[in-house]
């Protein structure tokens, strides 16, 4: 039986234990980003609420895509992962019906991630984003497999 | 009996507000209500006493020097907060259990309820508005109809989800088409039977669709945007997810800016943890 390690909203967890599965529930407009290094067998999962910090005083970097994602990557590199070995999969970034662009946090979260990756020459291996469904995202430490569940259905990412 | 009538009948079987809550609410509705008398009334109930003290000492509701008597707590909180707290104490036990029909685990309905109330008030503060007195309570109560409707959805959520997806309609519209009533209307019906003030009942009735409300109410706009923020943040999400229509007019009437919205979401998570701890032990 795999042990579930829950990643809350504005939270990030890293694991190197094959017996664990990292899981984040309730991805609405938030971004869920899973990173896995098959060589190091280290995985990370972050659940970011907003694209970027609204002020200079950042209490919790995991709340923001622009500071949380780089912080997770740095931490994974310090655990033996390599930039080339890391594989990223994104989920979430959903939107409510009729929301205007300036208030569409989901699209902004995704745009921030894509800009960050483009700047650093990093590719997203897969994404399951948008729409108006809620998502739960799992990263299995045994295999590096990322699974999404939503509204009673389950699929591999 | 139509499905709609059956659902309304079932809603009326939900437990009434606890007696101490009703007593305090009735007393507060008197024009000559006096805080000293109210303090005595609350002190008869150990549960309410503990909650009032905890709330008065929390940073979201009160803060500052610790208070240790109900009387001091009431003078610090004021009647407005006391009404909110007393209603919250009555509703929390009903909202705590899982609502299988909506895919809400234990505690999630209450969590969403608190999040909407807190987000509405935080947003008002962020926009330099004084939130009308019934704002927090209306936010707290806005999804109470899910508690009853969840019983029906548990049996048959499929057609509602399928209709929402197939016809790209908001979740509550699909509820109406399939069940003859949506959870906002049902919640308002229930609160009306519980004799809650009409301002709260109306806010709950129209929180998903403020533009259709018969009158204008700033609390309604705050609750709607509070609901949008909590939903986007993924708090208390069930099968319905983000499948609700945003009322742009509410954003415009309140002059919500993207910055105010982001700041409210930032503060929401912090405040939620504190309030949740208090109300989840009620």
TrEMBL record, chain A:
Pfam families: CheD. CDD domains: CheD. It catalyses: L-glutaminyl-[protein] + H2O = L-glutamyl-[protein] + NH4(+). Keywords: Chemotaxis, Hydrolase, Receptor. Coiled coil: none annotated. It is an enzyme of class 3 (hydrolase). GO terms for molecular function: protein-glutamine glutaminase activity. GO terms for biological process: chemotaxis. Its EC number is 3.5.1.44. InterPro entries: CheD-like_sf, Chemorcpt_Glu_NH3ase_CheD, Cytotoxic_necrot_fac-like_cat. Probably deamidates glutamine residues to glutamate on methyl-accepting chemotaxis receptors (MCPs), playing an important role in chemotaxis. PANTHER family: CHEMORECEPTOR GLUTAMINE DEAMIDASE CHED-RELATED (PTHR35147:SF1). Belongs to the CheD family. HAMAP family: CheD. This is Probable chemoreceptor glutamine deamidase CheD. It comes from Fundidesulfovibrio magnetotacticus. The gene is cheD_2.
From TrEMBL, chain B:
Signal peptide: none annotated. Residues 14-210 form the HDOD domain. Pfam families: HDOD. It comes from the Bacteria. InterPro entries: HDOD, RNase_Y/CdgJ. SUPFAM superfamilies: HD-domain/PDEase-like (SSF109604). This is HDOD domain-containing protein.
């Amino acid at each position: 039986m795999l042990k579930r390690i829950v990643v809350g909203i504005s939270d990030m967890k890293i694991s190197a234990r094959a017996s664990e599965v990292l899981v984040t529930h309730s991805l609405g407009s938030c971004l869920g980003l899973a990173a896995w290094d098959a060589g190091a067998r280290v995985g990370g999962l972050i659940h970011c609420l907003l694209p970027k910090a609204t002020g200079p005083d950042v209490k919790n970097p995991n709340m923001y895509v622009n500071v949380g994602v780089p912080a997770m990557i740095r931490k994974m590199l310090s655990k033996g992962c390599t930039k080339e070995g890391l594989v990223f999969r994104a989920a979430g970034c959903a939107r409510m019906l009729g929301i205007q662009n300036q208030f569409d946090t989901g699209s902004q979260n995704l745009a921030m991630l894509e800009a960050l990756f483009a700047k650093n020459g990093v590719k997203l291996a897969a994404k399951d984003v948008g729409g108006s469904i809620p998502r739960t995202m799992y990263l299995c430490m045994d295999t590096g497999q990322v699974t999404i569940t939503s509204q009673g259905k389950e699929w591999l990412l | 009996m139509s499905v709609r009538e059956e659902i309304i009948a079932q809603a009326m079987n939900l437990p009434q507000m606890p007696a101490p809550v009703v007593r305090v609410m009735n007393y507060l509705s008197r024009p000559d209500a006096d805080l000293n008398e109210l303090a005595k009334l609350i002190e008869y109930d150990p549960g309410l006493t503990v909650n009032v003290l905890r709330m008065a000492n929390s940073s979201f509701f009160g803060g500052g020097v610790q208070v240790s008597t109900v009387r001091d707590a009431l003078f610090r909180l004021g009647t407005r907060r006391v009404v909110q707290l007393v209603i919250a104490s009555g509703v929390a036990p009903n909202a705590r259990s899982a609502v299988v029909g909506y895919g809400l685990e234990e505690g999630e309905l209450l969590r969403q309820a608190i999040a909407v109330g807190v987000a509405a008030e935080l947003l008002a503060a962020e926009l330099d508005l004084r939130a009308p007195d019934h704002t927090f309570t209306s936010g707290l109560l806005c999804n109470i109809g899910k508690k009853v409707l969840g019983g029906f959805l548990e049996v048959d959520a499929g057609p509602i989800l399928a209709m929402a997806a197939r016809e790209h309609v908001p979740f509550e519209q699909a509820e109406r088409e399939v069940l003859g009533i949506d959870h906002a209307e049902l919640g308002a019906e229930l609160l009306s039977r519980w004799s809650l003030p009409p301002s709260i009942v109306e806010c709950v009735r129209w929180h998903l669709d403020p533009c259709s409300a018969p009158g204008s109410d700033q609390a309604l706009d705050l609750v709607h945007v509070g609901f949008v923020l909590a939903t986007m943040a993924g708090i208390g999400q069930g099968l319905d997810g983000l499948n609700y229509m945003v009322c742009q007019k509410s954003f415009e009437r309140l002059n919500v800016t993207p910055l105010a919205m982001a700041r409210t979401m930032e503060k929401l998570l912090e405040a939620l943890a504190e309030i949740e701890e208090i109300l989840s032990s009620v």
